[in-house]
Amino acid sequence: MGEFKINMEKNIYKNEKPKKTLHSSESDRGDKLVYTDEFKTFVAEHPGYLNAISGTIDYMSDKQITSASADHEPIDIKSIYMGGNSNTFKVTLNETGECFFVKQKRQGEDPYREIFIMEYARKLLKDIPWVRVADYQCGYLNAEGRGYYVAKWDESMTKSFAYIYNDLEAQGRDDLLQDATIKLNLIKDKLLPLGFGDVSDKNITYDTETGEVVIYDFRLDKGISPQKKLEND
User: Fold this and answer.
1) Distance (Å, rounded) from C-alpha 37 to C-alpha 7?
2) DSSP string, 183-230
3) pLDDT of 3 higher than 60
4) I need a labelling partner for 161 at 20 to 30 A (CA). Which of 19, 115, 168, 169 fits?
């Protein structure tokens, strides 16, 4: 994978066709990459960061390390969760304070496809003012089944709907509990008939300060192509 990390970085900031919101490419051996214009700019302005971050995350996962700094770069990385098929991290750029949410995915999950699924969900829900979709930036999956899902950091992504629900229940905030439950059910009613999966309290959370429902990770039936859905729209 190390060799393709370099190619991945070059492919991002040397792609001169920024006509679409999402840019994607696939190597001959099956590595897949999708990214936004914003992420392309980030990589161009921070050469070497992408490799340093992914290499450090791989090392942390393999050694079960919860906190580390990327070699030769002003980057701090902290583990949020390790276990199952994915590990999650908070990546902080010390120079600017900019932060990213990175999910390292292993077998059985596809961060490349997930970016298109989230974009499809965003378009379906764009007219609902209280929905906030994670600010996804990049999805990468290599031929061996390991990959990364990258989004701009959102503090709410560290607390699931179930966690928020229990917290509100303990506080006796029935008003917010009712509001959150109604909104979660409305999203389910909208997305489940269209083939979305994992539309649950594990992949949705609730911002108690703004009343927004935050969406950060869905699945879509394998027989449905989110890319084609986006093209048709």
Assistant:
1) 17
2) HHHHHHHHHGGGTEE--STTTEEE-TTT--EEE---EE-TT--HHHHH
3) no
4) 115
